[in-house]
From TrEMBL, chain A:
Protein name in the entry: ABC-2 type transport system permease protein
Record lineage: Bacteria, Bacillati, Bacillota, Bacilli, Bacillales
Source organism: Halolactibacillus miurensis
Keyword tags: Membrane, Transmembrane, Transmembrane helix
GO molecular function, one term: ABC-type transporter activity
Coiled coil: none
Cellular component, GO annotation: membrane
UniProtKB/TrEMBL annotation, chain B:
Domain (ABC transporter): residue spans on this chain: 2-233
Annotated keywords: ATP-binding, Nucleotide-binding
Organism annotation: Halolactibacillus miurensis
UniProt-recorded name of the protein: ABC transporter ATP-binding protein
Gene3D superfamilies to which the protein is assigned, alphabetical: P-loop containing nucleotide triphosphate hydrolases
GO terms of molecular function: ATP binding; ATP hydrolysis activity
Amino acid sequence: MLNLLKKDILTISKARSEVLILLVMPFVLIAILGLSLGGLMTGSAEIEPIHLAIVDNTTERDGGMTILTDQGLPDEQATAIIENLKVNRQIMTVIDTLEKEQLLVAEKMTTEAANEALNHADVEGVLTIPDALTTQVLTVMNGGEATESLMLEVIDETTIQSQVLRQIFRRFTSEYNLMMSIQTIKGDTLVVPGDLPLGETKTIETTTEVSAFQYFTIGMAMMFSLYVASSISSNAFIEKKQDVLLRMMLAGEKPVRYLLSKVVSGYVLAVMQLGILFGLSQLLFDTFSDRSSEFWLTIIAVTFVYATVIGALTALLTSLTLMMPTDSVSGIFSGLVVTVFAFLGGSFTPVEQISPFIRTLGNWTPNGAMMTVYLQQIQGYSMTDSMPLLMRILLLSAILFIVAWGLFPKRRFS
Amino acid sequence: MLEVKGLSKSFKDLKAVKEVSLELKEGESVGLLGPNGAGKSTTIQMMSTGLIPSSGEVIYNNEDALKNPKQLRRDLGVVPQDIALYEELSAYENLLFFGRLYGLKGKALKTKIDEVLVLVGLSDRKKDRVKNYSGGMKRRINIAASLLHNPKVLIMDEPTVGIDPQSRSYILDLIKQLNKENHMTVLYTSHYMEEVEKLCDRIYIMDHGEVIASGTKQDLQNLMQEEETVWIETLEKNEAFKHALEDDQTITQVIESDQGYKVIAEKREDLLGDLFDYAKAHQMKPTALAIQTPTLEDVFLHLTGRKLRD
Ligand SMILES: Nc1ncnc2c1ncn2[C@@H]1O[C@H](COP(=O)(O)OP(=O)(O)O)[C@@H](O)[C@H]1O
Ligand SMILES: [Mg+2]
């Protein structure tokens, strides 16, 4: 295995054309794009206002009045409490504040209109306020159970916009729940809740801006790592065509070891390549200045995840290549697929500014998903926020490898 | 020692190899001769368990090598038709890689590598990348890579294709040495009859996927007992003369070459006289007229009606 791995790494690192594609080209592009688009990028990486549809289904007038009067509260006091409590109005206050901060553009809609807007990606999310929410809150305060709750639908879990929306939503509900639980603990003496602590919600997003060099270092690294897979599969084709594979087979090499060696080669070469690109970019352009060692550890961990999917992709391309009489697989992949993936994944430009739909699509490409993760980490998101995409990548790796093994022409070796 | 029986291989509609049987006895040097596309490579790939036959058997030391290929693979050195090496790596790195595939390591591997490098005469160029080698050097290192595990049987697929005469004679001498001094059993595939003639104790001739003749060189020449090969050397060419020869019922083949014509005809007393008359009738002045012993080329021509190297 080590022998096969060493051979793959040697053959690729000694070939001038491979080094050119895997290291020199991306680095030159980072330099060109970073220097020329430096001005454009600052600012554009800030988050655009999020478009949110609000469906308010509230019809109740005296929401939960009886709950209070049943407890013996005088009518006037009960009315005052309810007037203060009206949850749907409080939500709108929060939204108003966010609009003033230019974080949100909210619009009230009917359920149908909102769903359509979401489908057409006119809005990034829909917040639905169920009917009688105030009654529900009062019921909960009295130890009952809520049957309905606020609901937020987002267009795609993985975009930055959606993440912001979810964070706002999560923060809002947890504040509210916390407050409610305090209320209920106080038991019989029901305290009228004051206004929600809206000040908290305003400072939710403290995203660091992404510089042009950071953006394109990640973008180019993601794109050119894909070429690791096609370089190795192209080598596998030569191995087949020139009967080196025959030699290996006659020497008793096992098919599973051959395929695994390709996975490991892809993995190791991707780690080496990404390490060199990030390192050089840092050294020459001070791309990630003043970052903590914790940040670098995160980047290294994320890089290992990306290398995994590159390894799996290498296996798939190798299997496909060995099935074909010509080297069309590597050719189509490096000539067409990489370009499309790189665009969708946002290697050249932040595609969510063109269309959120492209971002969604891009997040289903290995490079695009990982680009989002790297950018999230640069912007100071927590690992938890990146977890869904990382899991997606690992799952994708597993699927790619299983398909590769299924397609691998094992008979050739038997 | 190594034998195949009734071996066939089809690629989709194409029957590349049809019911081929051949045998290598220990210490023998056997030739497999045939034009391009005859099915030689396909046959020896199946013979070396590198390709699964459509039908037929491969038997090594009385064991079914298709079911249990381990022993055969360990004893077998295969020199593929292509340069089965990594062009970007040096000869030495290539040999390290292939040696390790066979489980060699450490000092034993290094010693063995040095030994085969001396054998193929490339010790002083071992650090160069294979892609910078000449065609002949590539062929030599291609052979070296098949010798690392001390094979008992060496199967070579056209190891002299497209190289200069010097490299060719070097390789032929090397194979002779491996066969005679190192006692390797050799199967040598080629479409050059001179090589096979010079090198091999026994010969199989293949065409269109079939073995059409086999035996020692003498056996094969005896196939042409009924015929005579006559060489007519002339300074000028004459189409009418050629046609006249071809129209003769007793003449089976007329092959034109730079210095004259080769004629294969039924054996008879007055053949030379008749040929001379034909020349005279067409104002030709042959500088020489001679009966030749048939070459394998002639045998092939006799059997198939075609030249070996069309
Ligand atoms: N893998 C393959 N797929 C389809 N046809 C093949 C394949 N390998 C060989 N052939 C065909 O089988 C025939 C015999 O080829 P080959 O064994 O290489 O002949 P030779 O080595 O005598 O030149 C040729 O017509 C060739 O095109
Ligand atoms: Mg051949």
